[in-house]
């Protein structure tokens, strides 16, 4: 409701209802102060930021240099190490969907976050809250010489890792995936639960909530990519992995100390079973004719539900909620006698909402695949990274430029651009979530073109300087030529990532909030699998056809630039696919509400 400040004071109260969109938690665990005004900063800190920011410092400080750890300490080839990271990230980003289902349907969000916080203290991951036990296991691989293969520091030769050594390494990744899934699945939705208050002055707070949380997470990631990566680069892997262990312990203690302050929502009935029941009921009634003009009496409605009639989209599923014989299909209290034969209108609409977003969700798969490219680090590592004559930026820290741009963009967009645009236009103004997603995909596509051009110049210079057979050589080309790529990726993050979370959260029913906020992680999971498939295919085909792999361990002999151009072509086709999906989807709830708000504003002001 920031734009209301630009109206005359006597108009503010008349239209304050326009942005009231926060839903009530199913069960407030504490209700004594439910009328107090809580800022988005406080809510985010009480629910996820205090814990999530600390964990971001640790988790994101480990991921950028992981490919260096696998290639230097475990002697893996670049393509093999990249595939290990791809598969690990895929598992880490898939488990939140399973945990989200358990949180929404059975356990609730607070128990799920708490369980993940304890369990994941054994691990480490590339997400918000997934390190704990796994960090210890990963730390042990760096501290115990027998836990890793022998490497000659002078020659760089490494023995092949033994089966027990790989099992120890991979077990840390597996524990990470489970623990991170528990936390990632619920911490954003759990934070949104904290925002509900009876005071209507808080009704516009949700728009700022996602931005505030992402700024907190970005700050934590920024510190991790700079400080933790610097420790790994200058002091060693033992200390570089040990600091995250201490931070994870601090994050866990912080989360549980604040437990009495949280609102804790009870789980709802299993929405997943309800969606499956809709499919079964619609199939059983597949031969039934759907009336073109129906009344609410012929459809089964849940008591107190605002859904009286099903929508016209995906009409086949409307058959699931049509009452053929009320005496046989309904109990005396109005419920379905067999939920596998008769569903409610609300269940039908929930399934439709999920199915409708799948095409738009799928447009993020290739974006995630292009972002999760470890070759970015190898490229930067082979370039001159000196910021001054005495200070050299670690290769893994270059990714923090994305976070700097992300923080700057979110701050400007939320606090300056939107209020200024609203004031200039005389009405509430903001880019829709779909528009921001499209801009993000386009920026990601352009970043790959930049990567290809820079890599082509870098490789040509490496060959000219005689480094063809020396992949560890540093060419006389500044690594800051990669800055445009990181600028574009920062803009992509600022536009697309937050917009996707907002879009899924707004379009899906509130009973599926945890799943809605976990869909981005599922995107990353499938994207990592796609990235692994693309890299393996390119590695095998390019070596078979040309005799030398494009993604060779020797970056100077390979052709990473060709690989980037291939990704550019795939992303451009994906952008066209997004435009088609966006047009087919039609106006979102946000866009429909925005038009209504603008009309109300115009009527009141006039």
Automatic annotation (TrEMBL):
Question: Cellular location of this protein?
Answer: Membrane
Highest taxon listed in the record's lineage = Eukaryota
Q: Where is the composition biased (Basic and acidic residues)?
A: 588-606
- Return the annotated region ranges for Disordered: 586-606
Q: Where are the transmembrane segments?
A: 84-103, 170-190, 211-231, 237-258, 357-378, 398-416, 437-454, 562-580
Indicate the principal place this protein occupies in or around the cell. Answer: membrane
- What's a Pfam family this protein contains? PTR2
Membrane topology term: Multi-pass membrane protein
Cited SUPFAM superfamilies:
MFS general substrate transporter (SSF103473)
Alphabetical GO CC annotations of the entry are:
membrane
InterPro entries, per this entry? MFS_trans_sf, POT_fam
Q: For this UniProt record, give its keywords in alphabetical order, as a comma-separated list.
A: Membrane, Transmembrane, Transmembrane helix
Q: Which family does it belong to?
A: Belongs to the major facilitator superfamily. Proton-dependent oligopeptide transporter (POT/PTR) (TC 2.A.17) family.
Name of the protein in question: Protein NRT1/ PTR FAMILY 1.2-like
Source species: Cucumis melo
């Amino acid at each position: 409701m920031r734009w209301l400040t630009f109206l005359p004071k006597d108009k503010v109260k008349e239209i304050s209802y326009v942005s009231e969109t926060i839903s009530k938690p199913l069960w407030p665990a504490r209700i004594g102060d439910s009328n107090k005004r809580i800022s988005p900063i406080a809510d985010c800190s009480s629910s996820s930021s205090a814990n999530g920011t600390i964990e971001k410092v640790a988790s994101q400080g480990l991921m950028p240099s992981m490919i260096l750890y696998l290639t230097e300490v475990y002697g893996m080839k670049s393509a093999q190490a990249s595939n290990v990271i791809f598969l690990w990230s895929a598992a880490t980003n898939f488990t939140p969907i399973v945990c989200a289902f358990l949180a929404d349907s059975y356990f609730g969000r607070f128990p799920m976050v708490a369980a993940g916080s304890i369990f994941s203290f054994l691990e480490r991951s590339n997400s918000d809250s997934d390190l704990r036990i796994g960090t210890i296991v990963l730390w042990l691989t760096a501290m115990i010489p027998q836990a890793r293969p022998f490497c000659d520091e002078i020659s760089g030769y490494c023995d092949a890792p033994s089966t027990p050594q790989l099992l120890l390494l991979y077990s840390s990744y597996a524990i990470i995936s489970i623990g991170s899934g528990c936390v990632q699945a619920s911490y954003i939705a759990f934070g949104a639960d904290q925002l509900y208050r009876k005071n209507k002055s808080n009704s516009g707070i949700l728009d700022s909530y996602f931005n505030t949380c992402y700024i907190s997470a970005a700050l934590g990631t920024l510190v991790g990519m700079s400080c933790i990566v610097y420790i790994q680069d200058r002091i060693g892997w033992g200390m570089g992995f040990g600091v995250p262990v201490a931070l994870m312990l601090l994050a866990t203690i912080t989360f549980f100390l604040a437990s009495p302050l949280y609102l804790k929502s009870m789980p709802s009935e299993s929405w997943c079973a309800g969606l499956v029941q809709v499919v079964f009921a619609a199939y059983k009634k597949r031969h039934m004719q759907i009336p073109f003009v129906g009344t609410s009496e012929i459809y089964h409605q849940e008591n107190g539900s605002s859904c009286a009639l099903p929508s016209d989209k995906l009409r086949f599923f409307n058959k699931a909620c049509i009452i053929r014989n009320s005496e046989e299909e309904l109990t005396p209290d109005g419920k379905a006698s067999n939920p596998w034969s008769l569903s409610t209108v609300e269940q039908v609409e929930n399934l439709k909402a999920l199915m409708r977003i799948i095409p738009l969700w799928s447009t993020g798969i290739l974006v995630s695949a292009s972002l999760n490219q470890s070759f970015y680090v190898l490229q930067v590592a082979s370039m001159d990274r000196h910021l001054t004559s005495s200070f050299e930026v670690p290769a893994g820290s270059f990714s923090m430029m994305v976070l700097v741009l992300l923080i700057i963009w979110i701050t400007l967009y939320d606090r300056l651009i939107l209020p200024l645009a609203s004031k200039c236009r005389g009405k509430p103004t903001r880019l829709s979530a779909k528009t921001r997603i499209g801009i993000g995909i386009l920026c990601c596509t352009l970043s790959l073109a930049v990567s290809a051009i820079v890599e082509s110049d870098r490789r040509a210079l490496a060959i000219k300087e005689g480094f063809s057979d020396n992949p560890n050589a540093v060419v006389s080309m500044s690594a800051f030529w990669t800055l445009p790529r990181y600028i574009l990726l920062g803009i992509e993050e600022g536009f697309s990532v937050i917009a996707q979370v907002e879009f899924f959260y707004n379009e899906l029913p509130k009973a599926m909030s945890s799943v809605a906020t976990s869909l981005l992680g599922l995107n990353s999971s499938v994207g990592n699998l796609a990235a692994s498939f693309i890299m393996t295919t390119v590695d095998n085909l390019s070596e078979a056809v040309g005799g030398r792999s494009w993604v060779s361990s020797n970056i100077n002999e390979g052709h990473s630039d060709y690989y980037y151009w291939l990704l550019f072509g795939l992303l451009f086709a994906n952008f066209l696919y997004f435009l088609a999906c966006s047009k087919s989807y039609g106006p979102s709830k946000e866009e429909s509400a925005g038009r209504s708000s603008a009309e109300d504003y115009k009527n009141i002001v006039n």
